[in-house]
Amino acid sequence: MALENEETASAGRSGTIKLILRLLPVALFGGLAIVFAISLFSGDASVLPSVLIDKPIPQFKLTGMGKDTESGLDLPGLTTKDLIKGDVTVVNFWASWCPPCRAEHPVLMKLKELNKAQIYGISQKDDPVKSLQFLRTLGNPYTAVGVDSNGRVAIDWGVYGLPETFVVDGEGKIRFKFVGPMSYKILAEKLLPEIEKAKRPISR
User: What is the pTM of this model?
Assistant: First the structure.
């Protein structure tokens, strides 16, 4: 009887462990989804802080999108060296298939108009032809656009989803990260102050 009870208890423990192992990925995914949603809807980039803040940008080299014969738009590629020239820059990860990127685009055009920093784009997992069509239709805020066809550069930058925007200082260090589509309010209250802050040396 004791052996049977022990076997029953052992089977119960085994079933419980299997259930926990099955539910663990679901719980982890749900937790990440909640955190990400809070970040998007609260507009608080600090909810998903980047471990790369105040760290040098990852090394990368991306080709450009080619020339759009219809508009004459011809954007070069992008490398690490382009972001280490002494000036503060804004790096925006985007794609033509991304609806929030389309909603954000007028804000990037406004940022270009303000001329506070040059804007560089990284087109993630997108068809260059469609990317060019997107810019031809909505306007081009970018000085250059690198094509991250396999998403490797986005991973190195710690990108969670599109769009994401980074402020990089003149030494090539990431000073600020914003997750999700920017609004005019976010531009005025968050991004522009962070651009000005990035123009000052990092306090030691």
Answer: 0.76
